[in-house]
Design goal:
10 helices; alpha+beta; Aminopeptidase; 13 strands; 13-stranded mixed sheet; 2 domains
Length: about 325
């Protein structure tokens, strides 16, 4: 790795158009299939809660035409509880300068700036293809903490039911009704509480019991008020009067022909009955009617949900590594 130029400097991010433009440029280099905009970043920042520590850093070099932004750093508090001492950390380097050694001084600066918060653990997510970033974090003592996640996508127009034909009928015959929030709102006055209770119960089943802390109900239901919330794209599996599974789609705020899988999950008591498959088939049918070209999702590699997505015809893409360091 080359040594960073002497005139490489680091400063706090400022809410200027030029800093936001650099943020968007470097973010879009990392995630070309999920482009963002200055307006979107500003909008999301306007909703950020001040109590949740979040810091950004700008790395610049001197050029003949003035200062040029070549790196970005991010530090944010992990989890829902204050004072946990656990933080997320990541950085982005301009592709043109990825071999100039900016990553190490930027990382060192962020860690030094975070020292007063007395962190006890750090976590980062790095794309596997960015080997130089992976190596830096490993050299600093970070280790993989969970299985890698792989992004994958389905070209909606090419989807064919094929071998999956009959799943929906089988699930329906077992007494499970697959509906959506738009319909639930018309006949179940308690739908929000039941939706929350189901999601909380599933999260408890899949999370570490010692670290589980789910969002409070009043905060959770704000999701239903989000302007991007599509009530007819939030599918729920219902057994009698109990909600037992869900699968949701969310629109991309920039790419109008792209939908994201928010989540697909089923209560432990109702797994291995084809419910997840039936839910996913509903989301694909919705995407086709919606006019979307692509559905994107991410799952832990080799997980049952990843295997289901492959069976549905999703194509594998970027692998994301999760690395953690206990201090």
């Amino acid at each position: 790795m080359k040594t960073a130029p002497a005139k490489f400097t680091i400063r706090p991010f400022e809410s200027t158009d030029s800093d936001y433009a650099a943020l968007v440029k470097l973010s879009n280099q990392d995630w070309p299939n999920n482009p963002s905009t200055v307006e979107l970043w500003k909008q999301n920042d306007s909703k950020r809660k001040p109590k949740h520590l979040s810091r950004r850093y700008i790395g610049e070099i001197e050029t003949e035409n003035g200062k040029q932004i070549v790196a970005l750093g991010f530090v944010s508090k992990r989890g829902l509880s204050e004072g946990s001492g656990k933080y997320n950390i990541k950085f982005r380097i301009d592709e043109e300068f990825k071999d100039h050694g900016f990553d190490e001084p930027l990382y060192t600066h962020m860690i030094a700036d975070l020292a007063n918060e007395k962190p006890i653990a750090l976590k980062t997510e790095v794309q596997e293809r960015h080997t130089y970033r992976v190596q830096l974090f490993q050299q600093q003592g970070f280790q993989e903490s969970i299985k890698p996640k792989r992004y994958c996508q389905l070209e909606v127009s090419s989807f064919e039911v094929g071998l999956l034909a009959g799943y929906s009928e089988k699930v329906a015959a077992s007494g499970i009704v697959i509906t959506n929030v738009q319909k639930l709102k018309t006949y179940d006055s308690n739908w929000m509480q039941k939706f929350y209770d189901m999601d909380t119960a599933i999260e408890q089943q899949i999370s570490n019991a010692n670290e589980f802390k789910f969002m409070e109900f009043d905060e959770y239901i704000k999701m239903f008020e989000d302007k991007n919330f599509l009530a007819d794209a939030q599918f729920v599996a219902v057994d009698g009067d109990k909600y037992v599974g869900l699968s949701s789609l969310w629109p991309d705020p920039v790419c109008k022909d792209l939908l994201y899988v928010g989540t697909t999950r089923v209560l432990q008591s109702h797994r291995r009955r084809g419910i997840a498959t039936a839910l996913k088939l509903k989301t694909i049918a919705f995407a086709q009617a919606y006019g979307a070209n692509t559905i994107q999702t991410r799952n832990k590699v080799n997980s049952p949900m990843y295997a289901l997505n492959m069976k549905l015809g999703f194509e594998p893409g970027i692998v994301l590594l999760t690395l953690e360091k206990v201090l």
